[in-house]
Amino acid sequence: MPSVFVQGRPAASCPPLAPEALRGSVRRITEFGEEVLHKPCRDVTEFGPDLAALVDDMFRTMYVAEGAGLAANQVGVGLRLFVYDCLDDGVRHVGHIVNPVPDPLGPAARRLLDEGEGCLSVPGATMSVPRPDRAVVRGLDRDGAPLLVEGTGYFARCLAHETDHLDGHVYVDRLSARDRKAALRQSADRREEVLARRAATARALDGAAGDLTRPRPPRG
Fold first, then answer.
1. Which of 59, 89, 110, 184 could, after both became Cys, cross-link 21 (CB 3.0–4.6 A)?
2. Peptide bond into 100 cis (omega under 30)
3. How far is the C-alpha of 96 from the C-alpha of 3, rounded, in Å?
């Protein structure tokens, strides 16, 4: 098994920061309750420098926030696009996908894992969420070429989480009313600490493009 997949394909290597991040700028991350997070995103129909710049900015923003993935509406843009840099079982998955469509999973292929999950738009909160342990997503790259991305375990969770965002759903929407309140309380208690850490990471990244450690559980 290769140790790195870029855009769903095996790769010899990938730098600690995806090259897109070195070209990008940090954008503000939207938070739970903002309208753009709670309505479906529209399909990307124009491929060109503006879309490429958005991908670059999203990679840099994701690294600053120490995330495993980031959807476009999390930076205030209501387009069907997400980026990811996700480690699962020693295998690193890096890429972006435009207009993603998940393949439906039949009962034989659908096994749910109930594990911890967080979200960059609910800063500081982590709750257990059941997700399928396998995901297959089809879409396009930023040039309009077709893509197929497959994931299991932690990466499958990341793919499902980010696709949910583009459909207008945040992971706390999948929680019981009690757990949802608990997640929002966690976020209220920890938000300032998380935002301060992001600001410090942004300054460090501006100074030197070194490796950033992305924490588990997944946040995106």
1. 59
2. no
3. 18
Distances in Å between the Cα of 212 and the Cα atoms of 82, 171, 185, 205, 215 are 19, 24, 27, 9, 9
Q: For the CA atoms of 81, 151, 119, 147, what is the dihedral angle to 10 degrees?
A: -10
Task: Kindly report, residue by residue over 63-117, the tens digit of the pLDDT.
Answer: 999 999 999 999 999 999 999 999 998 999 999 999 999 999 877 667 888 899 9
Average pLDDT score over the chain: 93
Q: Indicate which residue of 20, 31, 115, 162 is catalytic.
A: 162
DSSP 3-state of 44? coil
150 an active-site residue?
no
C-alpha 160/C-alpha 167 separation (Å) is: 11
**Nearest alpha carbon to residue 195 among 126, 119, 125, 124:** 124
φ, ψ of residue 25 to 5 degrees: the values are -120, 155
> How far, in Å, CA of 166 to CA of 45, rounded?
15
Distance CA 212, CA 204 (A): 10
- As a whole number of angstroms, the distance between CA 207 and CA 171 comes to 33
- The 8-class DSSP code of residue 17 comes to S
